[in-house]
Design goal:
This protein has 334 residues and is an alpha/beta fold. Helices cover 38% and strands 23% of the residues. The protein has 12 helices and 11 strands. The strands form 2 sheets. The chain has a 7-stranded mixed sheet, sandwiched between helices. It has a 4-stranded antiparallel sheet with strand order 1-2-3-4. The relative contact order is 0.13. The structure holds S-adenosylmethionine (SAM) and zinc ion. S-adenosylmethionine binds next to helix 1 and strand 6.
């Protein structure tokens, strides 16, 4: 943890300022272990392995704990970087471009292994504070270690230990895994300054009827309850099928001039064409993630639009992403 993170922190219990109470170990600009304390209610929070810990997984509730633990495990297995991540990020936060970030204070809700965090720090954000409930924060810390403007915090998105000082907050692939996605969105928006911006990307209800009907019951009652290591290996079968059809059919057809027209009629073409660019490891991680998550909602455009109204957003841009998910961008009232 860098000392500059203190400017952004607030007690999740009483919202007062947080101060550093003790430092046990430092490494360059990182405080590796120590203790933070609230200046008002005196609650203390540990800094362990370079990350301030505001959430105790054992105390957040069964549903959230199960989600965080399964993703935490998943990120340890899929800790790789993929060269497609930068474009993928820009696809999810459209119309935001790298030029948007210089000078901005950015909040990332549910950062996983931190693949977007270090990128946005490099794009010139004044600071990016990335939050995740799971132990994936250890990986996010590794990938941002020593980067002055990148910060990682372990916390629950519903109880963010942060001041409402952010110019921009975003959350990608997280809100639909929360027990109450709308409440998660509101919690994130509450940390953005008036006139600041928000981006979110969520699974759509539209065009995903086959997943809701056939994959969801399997995920809910079988795969999300399985031993993760067993599921890791079992998920290679559906991932292998996806890998073969995307590399042999969807990718080549969509890249060829004559095949493009034909590909438009293929099942789930936009998404599978997008996925065809990814290597085996990334495709396996996508399938595993779908099957391991204990909670997943598929959200309609109308429902998603109402979230933005709830937080009083303006200039809202909502659009399809690969025709199976929704991305949104909006500005909060001045
Ligand atoms: C599918 S991953 C997406 C991670 C990242 N946004 C990315 O695109 O790589 C969902 C993440 O949400 C995190 N998460 C789930 N529930 C959370 C909560 N209540 N508060 C904060 N993070 C949460 C999980 O630990 C997981 O890392
Ligand atoms: Zn307090």
């Amino acid at each position: 943890m860098k000392r500059t993170l203190l400017d952004y922190l607030a007690c999740p219990l009483c919202t007062a300022a947080i101060r550093l109470r003790s430092v046990d170990e430092e490494d360059g600009i990182e405080i590796m272990s120590g203790e933070l304390t609230c200046t008002s209610c005196s609650q203390t929070f540990a800094i362990r392995r370079g990350v301030p810990r505001f959430a105790d997984l054992a105390l957040v509730g069964e549903g959230k704990q199960a989600t965080a633990e399964s993703f935490g495990w998943s990120w340890q297995e899929f800790s790789h970087e993929d060269e497609g991540y930068g474009d993928e990020l820009l696809g999810w936060i459209t119309p935001v471009r790298p030029e948007f970030f210089p000078g901005k204070a950015v909040l990332e809700g549910g950062c996983g292994k931190g693949r977007h965090t270090h990128r946005i720090a490099r794009w010139g954000a004044r600071d990016i504070v990335a939050v995740d409930l799971s132990d994936a924060v250890d990986l996010a810390f590794d990938s941002t270690r020593g980067i002055e403007n990148a910060h990682v915090v372990q916390a629950d998105i519903y109880h963010l230990p942060l001041r409402a000082v952010f110019d921009y907050a975003f959350s990608l692939g997280v809100l639909h895994h929360l027990p109450d996605p709308r409440a998660g969105f509101k919690a994130l928006a509450a940390k953005v300054k008036p006139g600041g911006h928000i981006s979110a990307w969520i699974y759509g209800a539209e065009n995903n009827g086959w997943i809701v009907r056939f994959v969801n019951p399997v995920r809910e009652y079988v795969t999300s309850r399985m031993n993760w290591r067993v599921l890791f290996h079992l998920s290679k079968f559906p991932a292998g099928i996806m890998y073969a059809v995307t590399k042999l059919i969807y990718g080549p057809l969509n890249r060829s001039r004559w095949g493009k027209e034909l590909a438009r009629h293929l099942f789930y073409n936009d998404y599978l064409s997008f996925v065809s660019a990814f290597n085996w490891r990334e495709q396996h991680s996508i399938v595993f993630d779908h099957l391991v998550a204990p909670t997943t909602f598929y959200i309609s455009r109308a429902e998603f639009e109402s979230w933005w109204d709830d937080v009083g957003a303006r200039e809202i841009v909502i659009g399809w992403h690969n025709k199976n998910s929704w991305r949104g961008f909006g500005k909060l009232k001045e």
